């Protein structure tokens, strides 16, 4: 019996050494969770059970459990590296085989899918054709690396202040090259259907108390007829309080524009144009179109106060074509793509999975686990929702192995092995003594 007890002790100490050695070997493995050997004593028992004074029969390895406490988070130079600060696992797919990991080594493959260093695809919520997140539909996350198509300008919102102390210009007629023929001007870029940029310039001429005229040229040409340099114009009237008189604007008769019932100005006949190489150049249509709905111009918040001319706000919704310039992932897992045209859109959202019993997960190597009966079903959600942790982009979670603790455990396991070997040696000496009896 003593041999068996000592042998069980040797086996237990060997298991302890193996577990400790594995922890030490993976002290630098990203996302690794240290294991702990758990032992139980053994007592022999008859059919009717064991007595109260029964002797022990040794030790057995009851379980090798993993400790899922948080590891340190270190910043990296890769924006697609991801670390989980808190509860949860990344969900990855290898041709449909789902596994879970805390190792956030991610990049893109040749098809734009986000993959880890083993080629497993990261999963999350994808987007539809309009870049709207499809919440509830989990699929492989794919980054669209193609150029972003241009969008023609359809809305131009602008707020400005015209100086009420300005005098009516004495230089007539209006000449965009002569600043004395108008009071102030401003320009902004608008875009056609091919992403070509065009300069939309407004010239403001005071025509009387509280009355102004806004002349508009696009690329220095008439918006409707690029062969002309005469502007399209809109009369602007202000109230005694300095606010734009919207009812008067609706009742006005602009040239080249129409005014809607809401007081916004519509430019529906603009012909995008470009010059040829002749001298002087001849302007004609460039083959692109304006927005199908025209350009809707909103000036309703503009004012006329006794202060210098200033454009307080201007925005337009068009843009040229853009190349993918970079990706950003926020702490909720939303993936933003940035383009060279200054635009951005959502490419998807990373999801995390949690389990009722993480100790029940089955380790399968490559710093990954799979679901088991003991772990329960995964609960999938977005980072920072419920009990799930937050994502940190450009960072990785270190192994949670504490080397000093493991080195002490190594010494203890070694001593246990030596002591159990001594037990077998002693039992052997006792047996030899009996054999030598005459």
UniProtKB/TrEMBL annotation:
Q: Where in the cell is it found?
A: Bacterial flagellum basal body
A GO CC annotation given for this chain: bacterial-type flagellum basal body
Which Gene3D superfamilies has this protein been placed in? Flagellar hook protein FlgE
Ranges for domain Flagellar basal-body/hook protein C-terminal: 392-437
The record places domain Flagellar hook protein FlgE/F/G-like D1 at 83-136
Keywords noted in UniProt: Bacterial flagellum, Cell projection, Cilium, Flagellum
The record's annotation in InterPro entries points to: Falgellar_hook_FlgE_sf, Flag_bb_rod_N, Flagellar_FlgE/F/G, Flg_bb/hook_C_dom, FlgE/F/G-like, FlgE_D2, LlgE_F_G-like_D1
- All copies of the Flagellar hook protein FlgE D2 domain together span 161-319
TM stretches of this protein: none
Main localization category: other
Provide the function of this protein. Answer: A flexible structure which links the flagellar filament to the drive apparatus in the basal body.
Instruction: Give the family from UniProt.
Output: Belongs to the flagella basal body rod proteins family.
What is the recorded name of this protein? Flagellar hook protein FlgE
The source organism is Pseudomonas leptonychotis
